[in-house]
Amino acid sequence: MAEMTSMESSPKPLLSLRNINMSFGGISALKNVSFDVLPGEVHCLAGENGSGKSTLIKIVTGVYRPEPGTIIDYDGQTYPHMSPMTAQAAGIQVIWQDLALFPEMTVAENIAFQTVLGSRPRFVHYGHMRDIAVKALARLGVSLDVDLPLKEYAIAQRQIVAIARALVGEAKLVFMDEPTASLTQSETDHLLDIVRNLSAAGVAVVFVSHRLAEVLDISNRLTVLRDGALVGVYPAAGMIQSRITELMTGKTFDHKLRARDVSANPVVLEVQNLSRPGLFEDISFTVRRGETLGITGLLGAGRTELALSLFGMLKPRSGTIRLEGKPVRFSSNRDAIAAGVAYLSEDRLSLGLVQPQSIADNLVVASLGRITSGGFLSDDRKRELVAGWITNLGIRIGRQGDAVSTLSGGNQQRIAIAKWLATDPKLLILDAPTVGVDVGARAGIFEIIAKLADSGLAIILISDEVPEVYFHADRVLHMAEGRIVNRFAPRDCTLRDIEAAVYA
């Protein structure tokens, strides 16, 4: 613990928690953890999924009541536990990872609804709510139509709405749980500027992110948790990503280029001059058997829209798609699945998995034909199929019948991958497969991807994190404004070459 900072020379903490213990069903989630946040500092809370980060935040915000013995000192007051109303009244705000927004309500209502809450009925002044929303978005440098229902916007815009809502209140302490997971680089840079401004104004920010470059860029200190226990508190100055990873996981990771020459392999997918005006134009590329083709670029570049066209969910206006040399025109994703194309959505929570349903049901939903017998579903075949993929992908579960929502982000993502592998695809499209997944689980997912490619599966890996495609793809396409603007071979370029092009 030589790197641990001393609190002796630090100012009095805004928040100080001592001896936090929390258990669920006899399983310990937090073990005698102590945690401090100083006034106006940006403090990173780091750890893998399941390390206790969310539990700690929920104790501070009153969602969970910790076990007896915990001491919470906040802004000069001592509490045995917090309640949600106490926390909000004290100026504690949270941007949750799952956003907690209302899709049917307008953007303005989502941002400003807390300003009209109270113990007595009152008339709602929609014009006032609209003004509040416009001003909150302006602080983020974003212009959205605040009168549109939130469901009209994509994930990135919904994340911005969640951030704007958290900034409406007069906050002294803001928890940001993966706030940049769905933002472009420019939006992320702007958010980090806002965090710096909040810090300069005396607002403390606790920042949770799996993007370790952001952690080092924005934080003053880091608290690292592992398996519910405190590893240590460290200054961000002088820290490097590999050291944070080691502290979080207790392991070391060696980043090596995956890129191989697969030019002799047969072509699985050939796309020629594919266009859908307003989304993407004149797209041409190939993917070979056993190849991982990376596609990167900022959000809004047309990457997901291209993937949805390859999967039959968006119809291109012109151009051709050939699968193993044969032209295909998919009327729906059912046609694509039948032809051997699988697509892992970037939105695991609402599109990739059905959270309340069981692990087993989620895994087999795309391959029901493989577990039927005489026109009826076979429970034995289902159990066998599920057990096989859980073993093959190293998925950690309790029981097959447990809701998939009970799993960590990394294990949920493995279930989502297994769902599509169970269809026996020729081409697997992975759209941002590590969003919301911690660094340790990411390494496991990329190990799976490498093994799938080695087995001969053709893979398209889409990511806005350039290091992911640089280290794990054989070739990289850079998309911007709906077009392929650069093509890279990781064996012949540096990571900085691709980053310079994407973030220029």
From TrEMBL:
Q: Which UniProt keywords apply?
A: ATP-binding, Cell membrane, Membrane, Nucleotide-binding, Repeat, Sugar transport, Translocase, Transport
ABC transporter domain segment(s): 15-252, 257-504
Q: Does the keyword Aminoacyl-tRNA synthetase apply?
A: no
Single GO MF annotation = ATP hydrolysis activity
Annotated Pfam families = ABC_tran
**Superkingdom of this protein's organism:** Bacteria
- UniProt record similarity statement: Belongs to the ABC transporter superfamily.
User: Which PANTHER family does the entry mention?
Assistant: CARBOHYDRATE TRANSPORT ATP-BINDING PROTEIN MG119-RELATED, XYLOSE IMPORT ATP-BINDING PROTEIN XYLG
Name of the protein:
Sugar ABC transporter ATP-binding protein
Annotated organism of origin: Phyllobacterium salinisoli
Task: List the top taxonomic levels of the source.
Answer: Bacteria, Pseudomonadati, Pseudomonadota, Alphaproteobacteria, Hyphomicrobiales
